[in-house]
UniProtKB/TrEMBL annotation:
<comment type="similarity">
    <text>Belongs to the cytochrome b5 family. MAPR subfamily.</text>
</comment>
<feature type="compositionally biased region" description="Basic and acidic residues">
    <location>
        <begin position="26"/>
        <end position="40"/>
    </location>
</feature>
<feature type="domain" description="Cytochrome b5 heme-binding">
    <location>
        <begin position="45"/>
        <end position="141"/>
    </location>
</feature>
<dbReference type="InterPro" id="IPR001199">
    <property type="entry name" value="Cyt_B5-like_heme/steroid-bd"/>
</dbReference>
<feature type="compositionally biased region" description="Pro residues">
    <location>
        <begin position="8"/>
        <end position="17"/>
    </location>
</feature>
<dbReference type="Pfam" id="PF00173">
    <property type="entry name" value="Cyt-b5"/>
</dbReference>
<dbReference type="GO" id="GO:0005783">
    <property type="term" value="C:endoplasmic reticulum"/>
</dbReference>
<dbReference type="GO" id="GO:0020037">
    <property type="term" value="F:heme binding"/>
</dbReference>
<protein>
    <submittedName>
        <fullName>Cytochrome b5</fullName>
    </submittedName>
</protein>
<dbReference type="InterPro" id="IPR050577">
    <property type="entry name" value="MAPR/NEUFC/NENF-like"/>
</dbReference>
<dbReference type="GO" id="GO:0016020">
    <property type="term" value="C:membrane"/>
</dbReference>
<feature type="region of interest" description="Disordered">
    <location>
        <begin position="1"/>
        <end position="40"/>
    </location>
</feature>
<dbReference type="InterPro" id="IPR036400">
    <property type="entry name" value="Cyt_B5-like_heme/steroid_sf"/>
</dbReference>
Length: 143
């Protein structure tokens, strides 16, 4: 994939939304094949540990957490590598930003209590999208 976001992002219209991403056209279906999901693991990551898996080290897997659940996005690491548009989500729980459709680092926090109902729906959409696409390797612990 290696997609970079266009410079004028986020867009004025509904941005990149999970629902639109889950309805591929026929021609897109081939591109969207991904490795089979592994059985979920329950490793407890601290936020600090999780930060190591932000795609900076090519030897390490890449993780993204949503609502405290850690997903292994390694097979799609180009999307989350340094320099790519979604690197901001890597190695952390980015729940709030995903709910807000924000790519700002300051919005990438695990605490999403400020989200309204609509934004919580968006967040849940991303959670479902990741559940279908990426294996669960653990959860984020308090310290
Ligand atoms: C102009 C604005 C944007 C465009 C054109 C765009 C486009 C795309 C495209 C083409 C994909 C790839 C889907 C795929 O191949 O599976 C994608 C994935 C994604 N987008 Fe966006 N997007 C935009 C803005 C945003 C914003 C503001 C967010 C903030 C939440 C966001 C979050 C994501 C996420 C989390 C993925 C999933 C990456 C993955 O496959 O793991 N996007 N976007």
């Amino acid at each position: 994939m290696g997609m970079r976001l266009p410079s004028k992002c986020p867009p004025p219209e509904p941005p990149c939304e999970p629902s639109s991403l889950t309805i591929p056209t026929e021609s897109e279906k081939k591109k969207r094949e991904f490795p089979p999901l592994r059985p979920p693991e329950d490793y407890p990551f601290t936020a600090k540990e999780l930060a190591k898996f932000d795609g900076s080290d090519p030897e390490l897997p890449v993780y993204v957490a949503i609502k405290g659940v850690v997903f292994d996005v390694t097979w799609n690491r180009t999307a989350y590598a340094p320099g790519s548009g979604y690197h901001v989500f890597a190695g952390k729980d980015a729940s709030k930003a995903l709910g807000m459709s924000s790519l700002k680092a300051e919005d990438c926090t695990a605490d999403y209590s400020s989200l309204n109902d609509k934004q919580r729906e968006t967040l849940d959409g991303w959670y479902k999208f990741f559940m279908k696409r990426y294996s669960i390797v653990g959860r984020v612990t308090q310290n």
